[in-house]
Amino acid sequence: MSLSAIEKNIFTHYIPYPVELQNRCIACHSKTNFKYPSAGHTYQDFSGYYKDILRLHICTNPLCYFHTHPFNPSPINVLPYKQYSLGVWKWIAQEAKILKQSPVQIRKRIDEQFEIKMVENTIRDCIKEIDVFLSHKIDLKTRDILKKQKKILIAMDGQKPDDEGNALWLFVDLISNRVLKVVILQSADAQTLHEQVEEILADYEVELLGGVSDKQNSIISMHEKYFSEIPWQYCHFHFLQNLWNHIEVKDGNLHKKLSKIVKGLYILSASKTNKVYFEGLGKRSVREVFHEVELQLRAILKARTKKFKHLRGVDVFERLTSLIKEMNKALSGEDETRRIVKIMQNTLQILQEGLNSTQEQYETCVSLNLQFQQIREELGNEDLTKDEKIKQLNSDFDTIWKKVKGLNEKHEIKQLRSFLPQKDTSKSKIEQEWVRLYHSYRSGLFSYYDFPIPAKTNSPMEQAFGQEKAGIIKQMGRKKVGGQIRIQGENRLKQIYAGPAEIKEIISRIGPDYDKDELREGLLKLAEQTKRETMLWRNRVFKNTGILTVLNKGK
């Protein structure tokens, strides 16, 4: 529609001074007088184009700010400087936040349902504004909750969205499960993290009961230096993961070896076009004749590792063992001169040799996994008291240490040094690393017993980071969103922790009485973060230029 056509179809609203104020100033309560109408704000709603014109008043009190600044506090049905109504804005909020529609989907739906033409970038901008609005409302509720709660149990973790920018740090209260703070940090040393925690305590006027985190060096240093009298829990998930990783790498190598053996079998690698003679069948492709066995073998290889529960290499080894037994049984009494039988026997021999060559690695993975499952079960047993659990875990790792003490020239625990999981690491060396890990974590593995809630892990924070990134990828329509995580991450994380029910309630209450100043403040904050991030992008372009690379060629 052309501009002239739009102008002919605009519905004009003249908005008077609120009747309930009885022409009194909102600042000093003096009498007000009509001054002049505003220029008007034209916008599009679902039913057409509208123009809201405010009847502006001035205060009769010469000392009042509004004596020289005409105003009208009446809410209008559109956001400041926007071309679409609050109703359209709310509809987009429902689509994006409740129905989880992408900007591409929203553009199509609003065009089809209401014939409103909006480009995707405009919709993305609307979603960012909605994020700011939601964050403000969520923060208000968080303050109300903490005002009554008066104490917090803090969890903290950092997210590095890419290799070139700063990290985003998240601070959460685990009692209320509310976001306390999200901040972009260039350096997250002990002093910086301490400053962030102190700001949180002062801002919310709460007492710190304890903390939960992984064993990042800066967090440990912060606790020991500034909060040593407060209990601090090290994440059970990260502790178990550090134990598990050594099994998983070794098991992954077992799976790789077995996969190579299976895929190298003649019945899986032979050409599909080359044909040989089979008794009773004539000339056929080997792959065709052994098709069913091939499918069975490939299905076995598709085993997947399930963290802390299931190992794919072990699974493949055991299923191949069972298959060999079935094949041997099936071949019993068969004519060994038949080509099919000969190929099957050769296949069995290769598989058996493969299992024999990996037997020791399989047994190592099984043995380590049995120990791991016992440790995991006892660590998660909440029927035990704190002293009982400490005694039990101490006993488990003392038993392991007695087996491996002195091996690899390690006679004292303090001699043990950390190393990355490797496929060829011996069982004894892995067990020594487990002992080192336990003694490193032990002081913080059982602190949760002193908390008002059983907060044993901060892994939900990592899950929240994953949801936040996935949401931004969907909104932006691309996978590299490191900068957008720093720009939008705070608002997204607050929504994730608030939960769908709270978001739905906030959106349902959107009306013309929104707080314009708070929204404007949030948008300015978002604009500042965007400015900082895009400045980094510009600097990065020059930093990564290939000119020097070209000039240095041949030197």
Textual characterization of the structure:
The chain has 555 residues and is of the alpha/beta class. It has three domains: 1-76, no CATH class; 131-231 and 458-543, Nucleotidyltransferase, domain 5 (2-Layer Sandwich); 234-450, no CATH class. Helix content is 56%, strand content 13%. It has 19 helices and eleven strands. It has helices spanning 3-8, 86-98, 103-114, 120-149, 190-204, 217-226, 236-263, 266-269, 286-289, 291-301, 312-331, 339-379, 386-404, 427-445, 459-476, 482-498, 500-508, 516-543, 547-551, and strands spanning 10-15, 32-37, 41-45, 48-59, 151-159, 167-173, 178-185, 207-213, 232-234, 275-278, 282-285. The protein has a five-stranded mixed sheet with strand order 7-6-5-8-9, with helices on both faces. Strand 10 (275-278) and strand 11 form a beta hairpin. Helix 7 (236-263) packs antiparallel against helix 12 and helix 13 runs antiparallel to helix 14 (427-445). Residues 1-6 and 537-555 have low confidence and may be disordered.
